[in-house]
Design brief:
80 residues; alpha+beta; 3-stranded antiparallel β-sheet; 3 strands
Length: 80
């Protein structure tokens, strides 16, 4: 029997590292600017479709209660 001691790959690689821990949050434009550098090149060559992916992750993490929207303009996201 072969045992694998690897953790499964995160479904949202790099996403949790974009929004700062200090509670200040970021605008969607700032998130889209930072995210491509954190995405794996093999999954997102040249950051292709990073904006679409960012929106999907945003909605998923909001639904799970990991991040929340601030009632501000422009919209800011912060960790819950």
């Amino acid at each position: 029997m072969v045992a694998f001691n690897r953790k499964p790959r995160s479904p949202w690689p790099g996403a949790r590292n974009v929004v700062p821990e200090d509670g200040t949050g970021l605008t969607l434009d700032a998130i889209r600017e930072r995210l491509p550098a954190l995405l794996p090149e093999d999954l997102f060559p040249g950051a292709a479709k990073a904006n679409w992916w960012a929106k999907t992750v945003q909605l998923d993490l909001e639904a799970k209660g990991v991040i929340v929207r601030d009632k501000s303009s422009p919209l800011r996201l912060r960790k819950a």
